[in-house]
């Protein structure tokens, strides 16, 4: 039994005594205890692939920030590696795939990964984390959306345009679909295994959703996200697609419980467009946390007023930036807790 199940109740649309709060990318770089641990290791991948260390980092923000959920410390790019396309994580540069997908043969050579065989270190990290949390808060699992994973597998690295990946959609759409089907099959098996290992909720990150035109997003992303949502009925699913404001009406029809909003989206407009059947998550601008404590508090209250007191999970509109002052993150978390209680009591 969970001692704090606010996140799950909010995701299911149930009444909560206050708004739950957590942060994307909370497990890691803003915390000095994370940086101290990371400095002792060979690099990011050693941390991701060592279950006991990944579990330790996952729990750090629960201790330090008093958030309402833990999210397993991992990376969306473990999926292409499990499929047979390894990646490197370069300091100050980000991910790099020494080999990329260029042809039909490359796609044929990829496997649909077996979660226990090829991603067992993530599943063990979830099991270790669950034991250590001992029911304090829910544990969130996650994976990248198929389009975002394809973008990295074809481009080979981060990009402002992902022009190679987008070219594939125009030049060889059937090959793109073949690759997306393999990624989707792997992702479904992986997320189901995360749930079996103990994840209480899963989130699908479509980090590069916003670089596609709406027609391509519908054809090459939404349908595969829908397949993932349909396959995970056991726990609530959150869909977060950065920059894809045009896809919100489609997301409203998905079998997901929660829709994540980036900081450019208006919660009131989204709620008016989709109705009350979904929980919304977000969406404070991460840069708002660079302000003074008073400014952070003000921005957080304004965000909460836009969402209203029900069917909301407070978060940022994207991941917390690495040079953010943890004290300001605590102001954000504490303001959500204090203000949302008063809003429900009608004391404001």
The CATH architecture is Alpha-Beta Barrel
The tally of structural domains comes to 1
Write down the Rg. Answer: 19 Å
- For the biggest β-sheet, the strand order reads 1-4-5-6-7-8-9
The whole-number mean of residue pLDDT values reads: 97
Number of E-state strands: 9
Low-confidence stretches: none
The biggest sheet, with number of strands, parallel, antiparallel or mixed sense and barrel status, is:
7 strands, parallel
**Beta-strand percentage?**
5-15%
Query: What structural category characterises the helix and strand content?
Result: alpha/beta
Annotated CATH topology: TIM Barrel
Total helical segments: 16
Helical fraction equals 40-55%
Protein name: Uroporphyrinogen decarboxylase
Binding site for substrate: 25-29, 75, 152, 207, 318
Keywords: Cytoplasm, Decarboxylase, Lyase, Porphyrin biosynthesis
Family: Belongs to the uroporphyrinogen decarboxylase family.
């Amino acid at each position: 039994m969970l001692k704090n199940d606010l996140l799950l109740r909010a995701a299911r649309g149930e009444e909560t005594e206050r708004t739950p709060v957590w942060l994307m990318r909370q497990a890691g770089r803003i915390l000095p205890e994370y940086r101290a641990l990371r400095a002792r290791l060979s690099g990011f991948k050693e941390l991701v692939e060592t279950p006991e260390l990944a579990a330790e980092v996952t729990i750090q923000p629960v201790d330090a920030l008093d958030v309402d959920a833990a999210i397993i410390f991992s990376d969306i790019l473990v999926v292409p590696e499990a499929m047979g396309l390894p990646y490197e994580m370069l300091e100050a540069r980000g991910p790099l795939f020494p080999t990329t997908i260029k042809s039909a043969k490359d796609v044929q050579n990829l496997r649909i990964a077996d979660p226990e065989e090829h991603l067992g270190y993530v599943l063990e990290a979830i099991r270790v984390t669950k034991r250590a949390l001992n029911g304090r808060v829910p544990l969130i699992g996650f994976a990248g959306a198929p389009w975002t994973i394809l973008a990295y597998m074809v481009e080979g690295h981060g990009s402002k345009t992902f022009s190679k990946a987008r070219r594939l959609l125009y030049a060889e759409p059937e090959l793109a679909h073949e690759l997306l089907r393999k990624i989707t099959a792997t992702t479904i098996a992986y997320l189901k295994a995360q749930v079996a290992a103990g994840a209480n909720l899963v989130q699908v990150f479509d980090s590069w959703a916003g670089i596609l035109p709406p027609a391509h997003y519908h054809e090459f992303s939404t349908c595969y996200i829908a397949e993932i949502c349909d396959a995970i009925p056991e726990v609530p699913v959150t869909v977060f697609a950065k920059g894809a404001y045009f896809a919100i009406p489609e997301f409203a029809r998905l079998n997901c419980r929660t829709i994540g909003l980036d900081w450019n989206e208006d919660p009131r407009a989204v709620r008016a467009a989709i109705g009350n059947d979904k929980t919304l998550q977000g969406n404070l601008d991460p840069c708002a946390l660079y302000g003074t404590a008073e400014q952070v508090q003000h921005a957080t209250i304004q965000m909460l007023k836009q969402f209203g007191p029900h069917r909301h999970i407070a978060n940022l509109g994207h991941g917390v930036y690495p040079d953010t002052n943890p004290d300001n993150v605590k102001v954000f978390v504490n303001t959500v807790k204090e203000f949302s209680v008063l809003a429900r009591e009608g004391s404001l």
